[in-house]
């Protein structure tokens, strides 16, 4: 438990599944929180019941905070919370550190960092690995980048949230590496899902497919997440929506273009996932892409 008089005051924007789990962890550790929702009120009300204060807008939240944390789904939503008359940058105090925990476009983080620095404020991008269940226990992987002194300033708080906390260099590097990570994850997830769909067409038991591949070097955690659904009809191992996964692959593609490169592989995965979105799979978990591949006809 932190000494409330010595702990930084934290403003937290975005109490979805991950954000609320992080807020719960911070409350368990004794931090004083001001919160602001992004969509649902249920988690806001639960946090307030535990002692958090709800702000009317991002400007008010920033004015009351030493550290502002943002955990929303897309770059444009981060930008909307940061900018404008009621945005974080309108109310933030000099010396404050703003941390974006979402998976955002690197160029968006860099632009917001420049705007923050003009106000004497430091901006870190710190995308996350692992699940809300890990967040509740303070076991996230945190991929932070930006000003090293600002990172060191907030590191004690990050250590309360994460088991593996990295400083990855200049602003934008955290999101770049997270997009690399998620691209590899979605490549593996989609390939595994398609293999099980093809096994059905070939009349081969899915369990036999798993046993052979799992016995070799291609065995991975992501393979197991998809296999849990294929073999046990359990979609809970990877609580990550097709909609958010497709967004991350599209961000990876935008990043490769910003690097003056092309990714044929990512383009193929993006096409498949966008096809699943068109067929209503957006809210479903990534492992359920197997059903989409099963549904495809010649």
Characterization of the model:
The protein is α/β, with parallel strands linked by helices and 298 residues long. The chain has helices spanning 17-28, 42-49, 58-63, 75-82, 88-91, 106-117, 132-136, 148-161, 173-202, 206-214, 221-232, 242-258, 264-278, 289-295; strands at 10-13, 33-36, 53-54, 67-70, 97-100, 122-125, 128-129, 140-144, 162-167. The strands form two sheets. It has a six-stranded parallel beta sheet. A three-stranded mixed beta sheet has the order 7-8-9. The mean pLDDT is 96. It is built from 14 helices and nine strands. The protein is globular and about 65 Å long. It starts with 9 loop residues before the first strand and ends with a helix. 42% of the residues are buried.
Helix and strand topology:
Layout: E1 10-13, H1 17-28, E2 33-36, H2 42-49, E3 53-54, H3 58-63, E4 67-70, H4 75-82, H5 88-91, E5 97-100, H6 106-117, E6 122-125, E7 128-129, H7 132-136, E8 140-144, H8 148-161, E9 162-167, H9 173-202, H10 206-214, H11 221-232, H12 242-258, H13 264-278, H14 289-295
Parallel strand pairs: 1-2, 1-4, 2-3, 4-5, 5-6, 8-9
Antiparallel strand pairs: 7-8
Helix pairs in contact: 9-11, 9-12, 9-14, 10-11, 12-13
């Amino acid at each position: 438990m932190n000494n409330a008089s010595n702990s930084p005051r934290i403003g937290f924007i975005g109490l979805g599944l991950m954000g609320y789990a992080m807020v719960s962890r911070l409350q368990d550790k004794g931090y004083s929180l001001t919160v602001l929702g992004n969509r649902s009120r249920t988690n806001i009300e639960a946090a307030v019941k535990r002692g958090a204060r709800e702000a009317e807008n991002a400007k008010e939240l920033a004015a009351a905070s030493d550290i502002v944390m943002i955990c929303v789904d897309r770059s444009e939503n981060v930008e909307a919370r940061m900018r404008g008359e009621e945005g974080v940058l309108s109310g933030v105090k000099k010396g404050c550190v703003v941390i974006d925990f979402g998976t955002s476009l690197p160029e968006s983080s860099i632009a917001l960092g420049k705007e923050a620095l003009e106000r004497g404020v430091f901006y870190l991008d710190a995308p996350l690995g692992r699940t809300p269940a890990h967040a509740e226990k303070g076991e996230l992987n945190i991929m932070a980048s930006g000003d090293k002194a600002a990172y060191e300033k907030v590191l004690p708080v990050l250590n309360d949230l994460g088991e593996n906390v990295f400083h990855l260099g200049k602003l934008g590097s955290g999101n770049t590496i997270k997009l690399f990570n998620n691209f590899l994850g979605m490549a593996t997830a989609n390939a595994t899902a398609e293999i099980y769909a093809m096994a059905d067409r070939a009349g081969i038991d899915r369990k036999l497919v798993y046993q052979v591949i799992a016995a070799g070097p291609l065995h991975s955690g992501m393979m197991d997440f998809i296999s849990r659904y294929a073999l046990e009809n359990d979609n809970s191992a990877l609580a990550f929506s097709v909609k958010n996964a497709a967004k991350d692959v599209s961000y990876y593609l935008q990043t490769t273009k910003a690097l003056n490169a092309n990714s044929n592989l990512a383009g193929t995965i993006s096409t498949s996932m966008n096809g699943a979105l068109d067929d209503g799979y957006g809210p479903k978990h990534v492992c359920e892409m197997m059903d989409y591949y099963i549904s495809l006809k010649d």
